[in-house]
Design a protein that fits this description.
With 162 residues, the chain is α+β, with helices and mostly antiparallel strands. It has a seven-stranded mixed sheet. Strand 1 and strand 2 form a beta hairpin.
């Protein structure tokens, strides 16, 4: 009797179970590809590490974190520009509030903009020439005590200074 009940129930449960198995075991198209190397922010006696997704093409930079609903607390996106220049960012189509860290070519932090407003089209300027922008979840800068003049270390940044 139990076997018959189980068999009838499986007819309806099997597709659901299959979807769960596929969801948790296969690569998902919207899963992010983080660089194997951790990005480090070093300041004084503090050092904090983040997994980053490096975006280094115009197409990837144009999309950035748009439409993403979640990002792990220890993750971020590192924008790498072709040359040192003033950089202008915005939050159009960006669901997450972010902390933006503008980074000079030598890896020092030039400017920090905390708690950006989701979906805002207001321009967020680097206010000086920079080569990189690191986007972290809003609150990360204050939580980890990140400050201007801290140093950001990652092979992408180091390759620009050598």
């Amino acid at each position: 009797m139990v076997d018959l009940y189980f068999a009838r129930g499986m007819k309806y449960r099997a597709p659901f179970i299959l979807l769960l198995v596929l969801f948790f075991t296969s690569p998902i198209s919207f899963a992010q590809e983080y660089d194997d190397e951790l990005l480090k922010i070093i300041g004084g006696t503090h050092e904090h590490s983040f997994r980053v997704e490096v975006v280094d093409t115009p197409e990837k930079r144009a999309t950035g974190l748009m439409h993403r609903e979640v990002m792990p607390i220890d993750a971020g996106m590192l924008f790498c520009f072709d040359q040192t220049q003033p950089v202008f960012m915005w939050m159009k189509n960006t669901i997450l509030s972010l902390d933006m860290i503008f980074i000079r070519e030598d890896g020092t932090i030039a400017k920090i903009t905390e708690n950006t407003v989701p979906f805002s089209e207001a321009i967020i300027s680097s206010e000086e020439d920079v080569r990189f922008v690191l986007e972290l979840n809003a609150g990360a800068v204050s939580t980890f005590g990140i400050k201007s003049e801290n140093r950001v270390v990652h092979s992408t940044i180091l390759s620009c200074t050598s």
